[in-house]
Amino acid sequence: MNGRKVFADIKAEGFDCALFLDETSQYYLSDFPTTDGVVIVSEKETALITDSRYIEAVENDKKAGKLTEDVMPYLFKKNLYEVIAEYFASVGAKRVCLDPGLISVKQLQLLEKYCEGVEFGYLSDVCLKHRKIKTEAEVAKIKKAQSITDAAFSHILGFIAKGKTELEVAAELEYFMRSHGADGLAFETIAVSGKNSSLPHGIPTEAKLTENSFFTMDYGARFAGYCSDMTRTVVLGKADDEMKRIYNTVLTAQTEAIKFIKAGVTGIEADKVARDIITDAGYGECFGHSLGHSLGLEIHELPSLSVKGEEKLVPGHIVTVEPGIYIPGKYGVRIENMVLVTENGCENLTNSNNSLIEL
Q1: DSSP-assigned states of every residue in 111-146
Q2: H or E segment at 292?
């Protein structure tokens, strides 16, 4: 139970409770999505305090065994901060832990106003440190999200055609994922063609797809709260020799990085494998972002595969591997897979073809 992991950590630091006002931590600790409430981890339970819009659903999920076992629902009818203060008083909390990266100045001011006699302290990444290593249940959710993402790619290959716009392709990807089981999008879909594909995080426009040039699609589904992330670059028409050289350089960089990734290597080392291949091919200045990032409940989590990624990978980390080459004003290529780190290597979670596709 995630709440018990967190309580063990805060207890060791002398705290009586931990308070979470951000939606991601609340979902991680309770298995319930709420946009207005709070989660408090105490010695006896993980309290999910929410309002009348959610309480019936929370109680139904509790009865059905869908919530984490230690989660107890509570309804608040008045000022949320008064209810928080009352809860602290009921469990005799004197020292309460906050994650400094997940609370605003205004929220802290309100807590100090209402919670007299409570001392607030800080621990960074209280939940994130546990979220880094995915459980079997979390891996299963991410795999399901990716299976929807893979299916969307197979579908979109038959949709892409002369006269279609970037926005139309993005909308079709999103509709397919939602209509095939996704809770929503993992992030805003990127679908950029021709010179727009040189923008790593370009925004889809009403521009028609450019023939005989690269078309990059970076998108992902969200399933049961967990994200997937995949990028594929295709050509509507035919690729010339330079395009093939660039694409195959990116593909080789990705392939070799995936072969290299295993428990014990650092993000710096994995990034270097791909970056050296791209640099040796003469495109080092055209690969500006990191090789990859972790993901789960959020699309960008830790650890990272980057020039600053000093943390060693361990079994249970899920990371993206997404090298790219971008030539400003001309075009760009990115290929992205997700992998699950294992003791002796990694498991590729992305099943879509990553060789050059000409449509």
Answers
A1: HHHH-TT-EEEE-TTTTHHHHTS--HHHHHHHHHHH
A2: strand 292-294
- Beta-carbon contacts of 319 under 8 Å, excluding residues fewer than 6 positions away, are 261, 292, 293, 294, 295, 303, 304, 305, 313, 338, 339, 341
- Cα–Cα distance between 287 and 146 in angstroms, integer? 25
Which pLDDT tens digit goes with each residue over 158-212? 999 999 999 999 999 999 999 999 999 999 999 999 999 999 999 999 999 999 9
What angle, 0 to 180 degrees and rounded to 10, lies between the N-to-C axes of helices 136-157 and 166-179? 130
The letter for the amino acid at 116 is E
3-state secondary structure of 158: coil
3-state secondary structure of 335: coil
Q: Compute the half-sphere exposure of residue 311: CA atoms within 13 Å on the CB side of its CA.
A: 15
Pairing of strands 71-75, 17-20: unpaired
Each residue's pLDDT tens digit, 245-283:
999 999 999 999 999 999 999 999 999 999 999 999 999
- Asked whether 235 and 358 are in contact (CB, 8 A), the reply is yes
287 contacts 276 by C-beta, under 8 angstroms = no
Residue type, 197: S
Q: Is residue 303's pLDDT more than 90?
A: yes
338-354 core/surface letters (b: 16 or more CB in 10 A; e: else)? bbbbbeeebeebbbbeb
Q: DSSP secondary-structure letter at 285?
A: G
By the 8 A CB rule, do 199 and 215 touch? no
Domains (range + CATH), the chain:
2-131 (3.40.350.10), 136-348 (3.90.230.10)
pTM attached to this predicted model: 0.93
